[in-house]
Amino acid sequence: MVIDGPVLDGSFNESAWKGLQKAGEEELAQVTYRETKGPSEYQSAFEAYAQQKASLVYGVGFRLEEATYQSACENPSILHVSIDGTQEYSKIPSNFFVASFGVEQASFLAGYLAAHMSQTGKIGFLGGIEGQIIDLFDYGYEAGARYAKPDITVVKHYAQSFTDVAKGRSIGELMLRQGVDIIFHAASACGNGMIEAVREYHLNHKENSYPVWAIGVDEDQYELAPEIMLTSVVKRVDRVVYALIKDLYEKNFPQEHHLNYGLKNNYVDLASSGDINIKYLDGVIEENGHLYVILNVDEIFLSHDKKVEQSYEEVCLESGSQVSALESVLNSAVSASGETPAIELEQVQVAALANWNKEEDKFFCVKEQKEASGTTTRMLDLVMSLDRSIGEQEKLVASQLEAEENFHLSPLNTNWFLKQKSLWQKEVPNSKVIIKNFYSPYSCFLWSDDYFRELVEVLKDYLSADLLKSVLVAGCGEGHEAYVIASAIRKAFGDIRYKVWALDNNLNHIMNTQSLAYQVKEVPGSYLEFMLNTSNGLQFDSQIKESVLFEFSDVTQMDSERTYGLIIACDLLSFLSSEEQVGVLKSFFSQLDDKGLLIVGYNEEVDRLLENWSELTNDKFKIYKKQSN
């Protein structure tokens, strides 16, 4: 057996070694393993077994698949099995086999469980190194969580390592600071660091209003930290390794070259320690092409001689377990009379395969799927590739900005973000300090005289009075910006008829816009000709006020029937999710006149997210127009 990393990793490698050991103990074969420290050592490990004339060699893990395949081609008399293989081969040697696991199925169950157990509404995923296998854990976990609770937040980080325990720990600590209360890892030994972080957080924050949990992987990792291990997504690598050796011993080795092991035949599952799995899962059935997990109703619901009013914590204390999780998920269905209720199929099933799109290797309900159309846009393709082009430290800072400031990293703002490295390379990142550098000098309050004058010139140079009959200010905040735009239009074109539609999703902001008043010392001189002196201070005159219509509205759900000659969205897009950024920009594109202009935040680059925008050169503003066909 050739292994990438240490054999005693408490996870994947160790599980494979247990299967090998069992075969040795039963004298089915003489067994050995070779640890490697990376691709440079793979070939020599396989060559050593070839010289020993081994009968069967395992390559454990997807990173060893290519070396396993190559060794099989060079040594046709030796059987080779790639554990966790993912690739498709046009020509498969007769001595080469791939053993793959339906980890997305058990991960679906883990996500379903985590979503119901979470008290903060935030659950986390720690991946090792991106690749098809780890993606299956990732997609399955999120799909199960969203199947249970569509609005659940799933925070994800990749460590780019399977062995760096310290990095796993730091990522775990970051997610806990972000309010994540349940973290699932698919990162081998690296994930043990995350488990340590969750355990320490549990011990040091006992006054917390919510508990924190970890979900292990590959092996049942309950013993690593019994007090915080919710369950583990178990991949029975040991059983596969042992079974194939036994088949070889009995001269009954499989004929098919792709060996699939899943939930249906109990090769992937949730761990039984902590009374989560075996006690509450009663079997698996297949119906109409879907796989259903059947819950053991008698075990899930309180027995008749117990008080219905018992809390989940009391039940756990009685059973000696802190993690009778599925009971907690479904205890609300216990009828007031204590009778076991009749359960609809929808309530009983955990549809671990129902949403799986085999052609795309993704769950339908995972939001990060690429759009099917994707004609003139790079959008989600770029967003997804972004995760692989930015370093791990940058990802951690980006996640912190998202959690603490609601700032979403995407191609729209990546260039600005990378220029801020000096703010976190020498000290602990402070999201408030970083985000302060993002805001445009013309964002919020009344724009300064030089920015106001430049805006007037832009309107004169690029737009006409006719185009400015309808203007949109998206995310108008307290209303200052809308009055700036209205004043600039009047300055540029005089007493024309125009309407500025100012939208914001903060009702308090909208309600106070008509009563805005300013002290003389805080108003730039450019606005004084459009203002009146009142008992409350300076206010815009009635002509300006009547030209602005404030609406309580969400920019992601705008009225698509209006057409605008100018759209202002300063420092708005970056505070929307990646998907919403794309959706809103598409709406802007469809609602903007072909000769109109879009002005966004100074540190936002619209044409890096959508290709159908062209930037106009300007020292003070980020201005875009629609590309002509």
UniProtKB/TrEMBL annotation:
CDD domains tied to this protein: PBP1_PrnA-like
Protein origin, superkingdom? Eukaryota
Q: Which residues form the CheR-type methyltransferase domain?
A: 434-629
Name of the protein described by the UniProt record = CheR-type methyltransferase domain-containing protein
Q: Any signal peptide, and if so, which residues? A: none
Subcellular location field: Cell membrane
GO annotation, cellular component aspect: plasma membrane
Q: Mind listing the UniProt keywords for this protein, alphabetically?
A: Cell membrane, Lipoprotein, Membrane, Signal
Tell me the Gene3D superfamilies matching this sequence: 3.40.50.2300, Vaccinia Virus protein VP39
According to Swiss-Prot or TrEMBL, what is its membrane topology?
Lipid-anchor
Concerning Pfam families, the annotation shows: Bmp (PF02608), CheR (PF01739)
User: A single Gene Ontology molecular function, please?
Assistant: S-adenosylmethionine-dependent methyltransferase activity
Read off the PANTHER family from this record: ABC TRANSPORTER GUANOSINE-BINDING PROTEIN NUPN, TRANSCRIPTIONAL ACTIVATOR PROTEIN MED
**The keyword Lipoprotein belongs to this UniProt entry's keyword annotation:** yes
Q: Which family does it belong to?
A: Belongs to the BMP lipoprotein family.
